[in-house]
Here is the input.
Amino acid sequence: MKDFYHFNLITLIVRLLLILSVSCWFSQNLHSQTDAPCLIPYANNSITIDGLSDDWDMTDALTLNFTGQGHPYDNSCFMKLAWDDLNLYGIYLVRDIYLVGLENPKAYHRLHYNDGIEFYIDSRNNSRDKMDIDDYQFLIDCRGNSAIFKGDRLDMMLKHNVPKEWGIANITFQCAAVCTGTMNKMNDLDSGYVVEFAISWSSIGVRPSRETTFKIDFCVNDNDTLVDFHSLPPGPVDHYVFQSIKGSHDFGFPANWISAKLTGKPSFVTRLQKKYNKEWLYLFFLTFVLAIFILIYFSLRVRQLKNIPEKITMGTSPLLDALFPETETPGHAKSTPPVILKAREYVLTHVDRPVQAEELAREMAVSLRQLQRIFREHLDSTPITFIVLIKLEKAATLLKEGNTTIAEAAYQVGFNDPAYFSRVFKKYFNITPSTFLDRKKG
Here is the structure.
């Protein structure tokens, strides 16, 4: 009986040790996944800070879904960073059905009450619980208003909860924002906004190189009410939420930030430009060769542009003709996939309102990644670019009929800002709507 008792005791101890070891393994594995660094690729392409996402590849973007106290709307955000020797670049693609921007841009310390984003960086990767003098906060609302804050030594000595300077720091910084929808109106649905920024490395004291590490935090402020926050008592506000990438609702605490690491390197062309920057003989040779190619390209391009109004007059777009031939001929290697034709028909059916890539994937009964792969393989494009092209094709058709103004055409294809519509039209067709109309009249 005594031996049986000892046997059971040993068995129990072995089981407890086994359970403890398995628990530790899972804990370490989960910890390693949570602490996996955000890899920031080198930007060999030129990034223009204009509030447009066309020069970004959002395939591996970080995703943030945010809800909160009294906040019934499931809004989302896609975020990505890139770098080169001069700047750290960032973009936020925010899906927000109610755009709100009530705070005065001059009240920079209250801009977080507008729809907008926040980005934090610990430039020396040495902060612990609270912000120090090497930490920076960049706040940009959906209208492009911005404020910059920095950790403050005096506030650290006074043991403030968030020790930062409430004044605009002397930082070299660019930002731009573009909204799609109407501002401060609750009786319609908006699409959201895009925020882009570029932070000069030298202004935050960083010498960038591969494997450089630091801490960052992505945050979104979402206000879906027109209530004046000045008149409310302290505490949570209905229809207003602020959230970081890790789900935290307390910003400015480096312990909650995520690790980031610079990866990638300059391409051959980029390195060549740096190496021969002061070698005038090589530079002249490269410039001469480049000028020949540019001359050939633009001579062909001008010839194509002269045909754009005539082709649109016939009811088609030269860019979309290549994607959707009206008839299949023996010369075509393969026909357009049915899912792309179906996607085009869906966008045309709902051309008067914003159509999101997620919505298009859902209607096509495929995942968003599958839809992105299909468009990349068959069209060398993205779903967002595809949707914009379909809308521009429809707008061109409306304009060539001669009974629609540029503003009316923009509204009919889901653009709430005619000026923004004109910029996008020119971006894809290399001709402004007004120039197109002038050519039509001539």
Summary: The radius of gyration is 27 Å. The chain has two domains: 38-262, 280-441. Residues 280-441 form a domain with the Arc Repressor Mutant, subunit A fold (CATH 1.10.10.60). The longest helix spans residues 280-313.
